[in-house]
Structure formats: structure tokens, C-alpha cells
Amino acid sequence: MKTWNRAAIAFLLIFSVVLCAQPTKIAVVGNSITEGVGVGVPSRDSYPAQLGMYLGDQFEVGNFGVSGRTMLKNGDFPIWAEPLFEEGLNFDADILFILLGTNDSKPQNWDVYGNEFIGDYNAMIDSFSLGDKIPETWACLPPPAFSVQWGINDTVIVNEVIPAIEQVIADRGLNRVDFYTPFIGHNEFFPDDIHPNIAGANAMAKILYEVLTGDTIPILHDVNAAKNAGVEVSTGSDGAALTDNGPLTTWSFDTLPATATITLEAPETIDAFAVNFPASAELGIQFTIEGSLNGNEWTLLVDESGRTDTETPAVTGTIDPQSLQYFRLTVTGSSTPGSEIHITEFQAMAANGAHHAFTMSLVPDRESKTYKYYNLVFTPYYNAGEKMKLFRDAWDEKGFLQMTGYKGVEDKTDYRVSLKSGAAHSYYIMGYMDGVEVISDTIYADNIETSVKSRKRVQVPSNMELLSNYPNPFNPDTAIRYILHGMADITLNIYNSRGQLVRTFSNRNQPAGQHTVQFSGSGLESGIYMAALISENGIVTRKMLLLK
Q1: How far is it, in rounded angstroms, from Cα 101 to Cα 83?
Q2: Distance CA 333, CA 151 (A)
Q3: Dihedral angle at the C-alpha atoms of 23, 29, 34, 35, nearest 10 degrees?
Q4: Is 374 a domain residue?
Q5: Residue 446: in which H helix or E strand, if any?
Q6: What pLDDT is recorded for position 364?
Q7: Strand, coil or helix: what is 494?
Q8: Residue 1 lies in a domain
Q9: C-beta of residue 356 within 8 angstroms of C-beta of residue 385
Q10: Dist. CA 6–CA 11, nearest whole Å
């Protein structure tokens, strides 16, 4: 069997796309793991579908997975008899991935016909080589079975099925994909012990992407340079709400024009903006954004003074990257005048190579005695090719969980939020565009009465404040910032999700003011960590997310 290296695959891509204007075809043959049982929307969230999203329009990925099927022709449900398998043979694939063997481990299959597995595997490869193309074939080792389910047995997979696949790989010189080793100890990706969830399917897609291209998908962090920046307003109340990262706090005013001047601590290179106003979306808010490096000479960056949109709860925009320290947001009018205007957030995004996650708007819907309901609406920075998926932490000690698969601009991208009395949620987005993933900052929403918030969330000593670490999520480094309102002896402890102390920082007689501690997650596992700032007057805590 001829084996292509990655250079050969690259040549195939160039030949098929540039010369013939045809995408490279990838066929993925498998069982329910491939079909997408257990994920949100298989056509979008199965690992072949996610692989196709990562690879882009230059590839066409065909999913030929059928639930419960075996490689064994004499198995209880052989894939050979399926119409979808026939479609796979006629797909005329350039590249073939085979992920079968999980269902073959069942006693009624392996105990009786296991000695036929290698012959049937070779027969499948030969069947895909009878057309006009001989596809480059990749044999995949199945992921672990974390318990015996439906007769699927991990002991048989490890000791018999995988060695048989390895024998075929060696005999025919096939390319090899290991889905077993990377998932050892990661039952969280397989909720029923057999099938991957959306996050597990995503991890599988990334493994295939890496073996195909030789590249990993870089993960960047969105940086809102205006977060916690100083704000001065010409009118209205609570201008500081513009930069507090609070989706429900607002700068409110009824006099126009209204101006907010935002000042960063130091100049930053900026290439995008977002202005959020979910409670006033129907007013068709009109505004401009100016920027300055010195606070004296201003340049018009964004002109939405003629805006008439009365539905979108946020406006995003991009500019050529430039160094700025001052911003002037001027609300000039609205297409539906006469009402008080509420703006929740102003974001100035640090240049990130033209990669940004969607901005999030929390739109109040209704409330009952027990629940508050919101719509979490996502607005992209770009109109084509940008995708996003949502993660939520329900403050239930499970940490952040993936709530949706990747959705594009063309999909319905809002998310229903229901908060029971006393509940609190945090959210962040992972965006994807042009081969790069971007993690957004985290926003917070709760249904906790103001009078009891301090007891429900954290005890807040009056002499110190623990600010959000930045960035968050982080990999591997983050800055933990805190404010002391007087001289104090402090200790900053970092705990993992099991409550184990992993780092400690101490300072005696630290003066009043803002302080920063650089924390590195190198050598630590991905997951939720807790920063605890301790003084003689009490303790303040914040959650942090390490993503690797």
C-alpha cells in the first residue's frame, strides 16, 4: 500500500483545488462514534463535521458512520451491508479514515469471528481501492471504553482489537491515528463511557487535523483593553458600567448628545470595537467612536451616526490596527428618539491578527418568583467564516462545560439562559476563523438578591478587592490583580478544583494601591482554579480557568 507523507497531501491539495477547482475528498467510515451519537447536532458536531469545519472549503469530509456496526462481515451488524457504506465506496475519496472495532469487541462478535478481523480489514481497504482513485488510508485505533456497555469491552479492545489493527498498519504501511492513548483518564469526554460528547468529538477532530496537516490549531485570548478602564461621562449615571465587564450594569442617560471618554492605563494596539446596548436595542442608537494617543488629537474610528437598526443588541466593527490610549464614545441620537438610553459595555479589542470571538449581550426576557430568563445573544466581528461555541459554568463545582457546538453567522446563535433564585452562571465563547481559535473574556449573570449577594458569592472585606485575573481563561500565564485600601499583610493562595494548594504568595506590610501577581499554570492540568486573597480582615476569592 502506497503511503503519502504530509508533503504529498499538500501537493494533492494544491493540485485538486488550484488546478481542478475541486476539494480534496475525505471519507470517514465508522460506527456510532463517527456518526455522532451523543453530540448535539451530528451533521455539525460529530468529529468528521468538526474536522471539515477546521479544514475549510478546500476539503469535503464525508461521514459514513453507522451506529452499532462492525468491521467483521460476520458480525451482528456488519457495516458492509449498509447503503451508507456503499455511498462511501462511491464517494471517490482522496483520503480514507477507518474507525471500526468498538462493536467488534462484543462477545457475540469477537469470541466467534475475531480471527476474521484482519482479513475483513484488508478487504475494506481493497474495496476503497477499486475506483478511479486509490485513497490514502489512515487506520484509527478506537477510543477507550470506560466500562462494559452493550457488550463493548475495553479489555478486548486493548488486548485484541488494537493489536489486530496495528498488524494491518504494519503489513500494509498505513498511516496510523491513535484515538486510544490521548483519552486515557478522560472519561469526561465520554459521558456514557462509549460515545464522545461535543467536546470529545472536538478533541477527536483536532487529532485528525493535526495528523493531516502537521499543525496544531493555535488558541489565542481576546483582550478587551478597555476592561476596568477609567470613564468620564458628560451626562447620565454610572459611566463606569461601560468598562466593568458587567452585562447588566448600564450607563443611562436621556440627554443627547452624550459623551463617554475612556482612558486606558497605557497605549494599546487596537483593531476592533464592540458597543453593547441590549435593553435599548429597539431605539436604533446612533454613535461615533474617536480615538487618540495623547488625549488632544482625535481620529474618527467608527461612524454609526446614520444607524437605523432596531433589532441588534450590539454593534461590532474592525479598524486597521493602531496604537491608542483614549477613546470617545459619542451617542448622537437614535432612530426612535424620546426614551432613556442604556449602554452596558464598551470594548476596545487588542489587535489579535484579525481574530476575535463574538461579543456577548445578555438580553433580559422575563422573570417569575423563582426564575429570571435571559437571551444570550452573540454578535460576530466578521460577516463570513466566523464561528463560535459557548461554555457555561453553573457554579456547581463542575467547572465550565461546553453547551453548543460550533455555530456560524448563518446559524441561530442566541442561547436561552434561565437562572433559578440563588443561582449564578459564568459564560465564555471560543471563536474560530481562518485556522485560529480565540477565547473570549468571561461574563457573569446571577439571580441573587442584592442583600444576600455577598453571602452567596464571596465575603468581601472592606479593605481589599480581588479583581478578575487577566486573561481568563488563560494558558499558561495570567495576571492576578488586587486593590488594597490600606497597608496590609496579605497571602494569595491558588487552589485546584480538588481544594489542593498549588501556589502561595505572601507579602508583609504591602502598601495601599493596585498590585499584580503573575501566576503561571505551567505543569498544571487544565481546569478550574481558585485564587484566594487573605488578610486579617477576611478572604476574597475568584475562579480562574486554565485551558491548554
Answers
A1: 19
A2: 67
A3: 90
A4: yes
A5: strand 443-446
A6: 86
A7: strand
A8: no
A9: no
A10: 9
Q: List, for residues 385-437, the tens digit of each pLDDT value.
A: 889 999 888 877 677 788 888 888 777 778 999 988 878 888 889 999 888 99
The full 3-state SS of 4-31, as one line of letters, equals CCHHHHHHHHHHHHHHCCCCEEEEEEEC
Q: Are residues 477 and 335 in the same domain?
A: no
Q: Say if residue 66 is in the same domain as residue 122.
A: yes
Strand partners, 25: 60
Claim to verify: residue 408 and residue 494 sit in the same structural domain: no
How many domains is the chain built from? 3
* 490, β-bridge pairs: 507
Q: What is the pTM of this model?
A: 0.74
What's the CA gap between 498 and 195, in Å, rounded? 26
**In Å, how far are 75, 101, 108, 161, 241 from 79, measured between CA atoms?**
9, 11, 16, 17, 59
CA 56 to chain centre: 18
Cell of 526: 487544565
C-alpha–C-alpha distance, residues 505 and 494, integer Å: 9
- List the beta strands (DSSP E) in 31-173: 59-65, 95-99, 136-141
Does residue 505 sit in the same domain as residue 534? yes
Q: What pLDDT is recorded for position 397?
A: 66
413 burial type by CB count under 10 A (0-12 exposed, 13-18 middle, 19+ buried): buried
Structural domain including 343 reads 230-446
d(CA 169, CA 175): 7
Residues 116-136: tens digit of each pLDDT: 999 999 999 999 998 778 999
User: CB-based contacts of 205: which residues, under 8 Å, 6+ apart?
Assistant: 47, 48, 50, 51, 53, 54
The label of the residue with cell 437605523 reads: 308
Are residues 400 and 462 located together in one domain of the fold?
no
Q: Is residue 250 scored above 70 in pLDDT?
A: yes
222 occurs within a structural domain: no
| Cβ atoms within 10 Å of 377's Cβ, excluding its own | 20
**Domain containing 194 — which CATH number?**
3.40.50.1110
CATH of the domain at 471: 2.60.40.2550
Q: Determine how β-strand 538-546 pairs with β-strand 527-535.
A: antiparallel
Q: Which of 159, 184, 216 is the last residue of a domain?
A: 216
Cβ atoms 146, 157 nearer than 8 A: no
Query: Same structural domain for residues 251 and 199?
Result: no
d(CA 543, CA 494): 10
Q: Which three cell numbers stand for residue 152?
A: 463493548
Residue 108 and residue 136 in one domain = yes
Shared domain check, 166 and 31: yes
Cβ–Cβ < 8 Å for 60, 23? yes
Residue 203 CA, distance from chain mean position: 12
Classify residue 451: in a domain, yes or no: no
Q: In terms of C-beta distances under 8 Å and separation of at least 24 residues, what long-range contacts does 154-158 make, across chains too?
A: 154/105, 156/105, 156/110, 157/101, 157/102, 157/105
Residue type, 509: N
Residue where a domain stops, chosen among 446, 478, 512: 446
